[in-house]
Amino acid sequence: MTQHRIAVIPGDGIGREVVPAGLEALEATASRFGLGLEFDTFDFASAEYWQRHGTMLPSDWEETLRGYDAIYFGAVGWPEVVPDHVSLWGSLLQFRRTFDQYVNLRPCRLLPGVRGPLAGREPGDIDFIVVRENTEGEYSSIGGRIFEGTERETVLQETVMTRVGVDRVLRFAYEQAARRPKNHLTSATKSNGISITMPYWDERVAAMQGQFPGVRVDKFHIDALVANFVLHPDWFDVVVASNLFGDILSDLGPACTGTLGLAPSANINPERDHPSLFEPVHGSAPDIAGRGIANPVGQIWCGSMMLDHLGHPEAAAHLLGAIEDVLAYGPTEAPLTPDLQGKGTTAELGQAIADRVRTRDQANA
Ligand code: NAD
Ligand code: IPM
Ligand code: MN
User: pTM (2 decimals)?
Assistant: First the structure.
């Protein structure tokens, strides 16, 4: 039996509610496909850990997590207790950088049975992936404050683009585009206004184009791109973006497909020198936390991405198929959560998907 060790970090808020649903679906899939998944759950990267220890992570976190094949993560952030930039730079952003998870892969698909906000759009009309640069760009710790408390008070935060950093994420995106049926890559830029880093990004996109002659490439300034996500989501196949632009696009995309609660993300170290991390796109959602109504689908879909990454594409497809089947039953037949116009709870929807994993025909996977 293939054995994988998975570190589970539920984090804060709805992270703690959707992770158990994700684990139930993963366990059902593992038993169906004869996979040995061993889960160890950690309480760090949470506001409660911060309250107890005054830090987000134990000093040996890197050594601890390095021993796992993957990290299954919920969400972190509880601004009432710890400022967001402190909790995020003290945990998730550390994981991404230390483990060189330089690709953040965020699929975006309008699924059968789900009502999106865009009129006239059918499943198949929206089916793209956002490839987000995940370790540099606008998320840099270079900068600071000077002349604090005076009229000359100045704050500065630099954007960093390295050739290695830009090229490696572009290559990943080109490879994805080369593999998908539409062979289409869209680059998010803002080289009309951000006059140093963004023209560099465009140059590197153009420099790589010759290596992928089968891929059609276009670029949009980010302002026009967000408009086109809403007006023409069918135009997109693979969208590659810098860290901040990718962050924004990967919330907007899922919103166009119905709800943020559906969206998964894979923080990948493609070289597999370090564990990759699988988490939903959404955060800890303090506005609905504790009510048991969070949509667990994004978290469960992450489990499918994790199985794929661990070398089990059939199990991954089976789990995704179970999600699709249950969503397709619609809110009257399945216990869909309120963001999907249903009356179900997190646990009920998680259970329905795990049950479907057990019963659905494997050949349909
Ligand atoms: P959020 O994603 O938590 O919530 C945005 C909105 O979407 C809220 O109205 C929320 O109720 C809704 N929503 C999110 N997930 C949902 C789900 N599964 N089902 C139903 N509705 C869902 O974003 P926010 O409010 O900006 O951030 C809240 C906290 O989470 C902050 O501390 C933020 O820093 C943190 N955050 C963490 C991550 C992460 O861990 N990867 C990602 C985003 C935000
Ligand atoms: C995400 C989140 C994080 C990001 C925050 C919480 C730092 O929004 O994973 O999309 O901006 O990367
Ligand atoms: Mn985000």
Answer: 0.98
